[in-house]
Amino acid sequence: MLAPSRSFMWICKTVRFSIKGQNADSEACLDGDLTRMINSLANGRLYQKVAIDLAHRISAGEFSTSDRLPTERMLAETLQVSRPTVREALIALEIKGLIEIRGGSGSYVCRQPDVTTELDRLFDLGHSPFEIMQTRLLFEGETAAVAAEKAGEADLAAMQAAIAKSWEEFEAHTMRRSNIANDADGMFHFAIANASGNSLTASIIHHLWKRLRSPIMGAMEDRVDIEQYAEIQIMDHERIFQAIKSKDAAAAKDAMHRHLRRYIKLLQTK
What we know:
This protein has helices at about 5-20, 25-40, 45-60, 70-80, 85-95, 120, 130-150, 155-170, 185-195, 200-210, 215-220, 225-245, 250-265; strands at about 100, 105-110. The chain is mostly helical. α5 (about 85-95) crosses α11 (about 215-220) and α12 (about 225-245) packs antiparallel against α13. Mean pLDDT is about 80; it is low at about 1-15, about 20-35 and about 40-45.
């Protein structure tokens, strides 16, 4: 697996401080530090660099049209990155029509890239889905635990309303088609963030969610059985809600971790 960046390790050391909440001055200071940190992460999209490298190799003739690219494992070893990073890079290449990913067969070159195109902009399809989920795993587990301690009746009502809306969307087969402000999945996670009583935590989680609505995340979700996952997702939400309602911080944190890890595993299935 890709080693966590120094910025990500910095989050690990500060997230509990942030979520528990401090005085206004210290929170404002941390807010600025975290904003700069998140912005720096956005500038370091490793999958984009891998996609550019592969596009240059295709352009240089190392791989010709109709050639099958090496496997994800082989590319990961050659480029010294993780397989999830290679997967994101291949999907980026497919989005731009340079390769075709055929399930069970491999990835095939479709055309040569236009060498006059500014490649870093060509592959700017959003932040790494796996890095976003890794960061969510860290933040939202702790947030759920704090929410179990602090959630009031209004917070619980907001979570319950989001779950009810999720079931409605599931029955109507409209899940993940709403905009981010009206997405039932997002509404549930935002309700938990708000219940933590820390506006900085809520802002960070909103920020991460906006980054999930990217072309590369959409392409990754299109490759997996997202509809089948939808029902499990709502059941996960119900377990998280019950733990928070019962004021069981450890159970809430564990349920959130299981929920997010299940989604990460889904993205890695194909």
